[in-house]
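Agenda item 2: zinc ion complex prediction
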Amino acid sequence: VISPSDAVTSAGSRDLVITDVSVLVHAPDGIELAEHRDIVVRDGEIVEVRETRPLPAGEAAGEVIDGRGMLAMPGFINCHSHAPMVMFRGAAEDVPAEAWFNDFIWPMEVNLTPEDVELASRLAAAEMIRAGVTTFADHYFSMDAVARATAESGLRGVLGETFFSSDGSAGLERSLAFATEWGGAAQGRITGALAPHAPYTVTDDDLAATAAAALEHDLLVHVHASEGRDQVRNSLARHGKTPIQILERTGLLEARTLIAHGIGIVPDDLPALSAARAVGVGSAPKGYLKHGFDTTPVRLLAAAGVPVGLATDGAASNNTIDVWESMTFFALVQKAVERDPAYLTARQVLDHATRQSAAAVGLAGVVGSIAPGHRADILLVDLSAPRLHPVHDLLATLVFSGRSDDIDTTIVDGRVLMRGREVLTVDVAAVTAELAGRRARLTDRTHGKSIQEYGA
Ligand SMILES: [Zn+2]
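Presented output:
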């Protein structure tokens, strides 16, 4: 059993050199491609990105990966997920959001044990590693189980225990205990966050208490807010404030805040967002399309200087937790809603996928860039697929033709988690077999219970 104190991945050195590789880099004017580069990683940190040259003797001692024919890019960051929900993938399809929550998801979640959550988190970890997701900002129950799976799998997580005001004061206490206990575990790969569910399920008093705890312990607050126009209308009718204005009024925007979705953000919210200490938004466009929702107003948020990162939400709504897929949807949906094919170039989309996503989850300068001083969360993309050729503009190729299946190698904190598309840290066959045996119990809804009532 792994506990926070011993949740470290001990396997192998975290020194490596990737030689003669093309690298997606952040230049002052935006994202560029640098060719024939060596990336030197020591103890999980990128120490140098330089022109390819014969390796000095000392560097050849660690692992050396031949990068020819590959593109090195920063690992994807999932800015809002409920990783264990992979177990409900496909169990609630073709229904409106209210029925999705009240008739399916919340009754099914009553069935969950921490063991179910841990098993599902292992499946999710394998899916993320294969999809090139190296960091995920997760929001769920039984997060000790998610944290154990994160530690074991080698992934990086910004993890928060979800709570509702219906849990009483124990909800925030549990969320805070989790965040402080697990923060910094797994060799620093786990960051703790506070995770109030949403302004419509958590009272103003509890949001204010969350803000105070976040400031006292310097924790990120990860919260669903302004998920659609209906929520904004209801919030205005009940409180005279938008959901974002409620976050401001309760002091949450004085803490570091990650807002999931933000679909209903309106120009009236911009003063609060511009004055916020550090706020980011995670956008999960595939699920919005599926539920017939609007989408995150990216152009509006850009004008207010708010970073917008990419997300998947849970696989019960999104069916996959593949951020590369989110990236492609993000680009296409924004062009469609803005009715502007020139809006969001491939370079801008990649900026959302890397630098802005890192900022949104509170890890700016730590991940999201292949540059000295950053942790070595790196993908090696195999550029040999026919679908990727000829290459006129590799960055456009990545966004509009590439898929996560093109990723050959996934590296987190200098440790190789997938090589040649084989996941090295999760026994996928064993996990899927065991989960299949639990399917009937997990999806049982005959007990008539629910963890919440959705009516926002
Ligand atoms: Zn969510």
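Discussion summary: The CA atoms of residues 8 and 186 lie 4 Å apart.
Owner for follow-up: CH.
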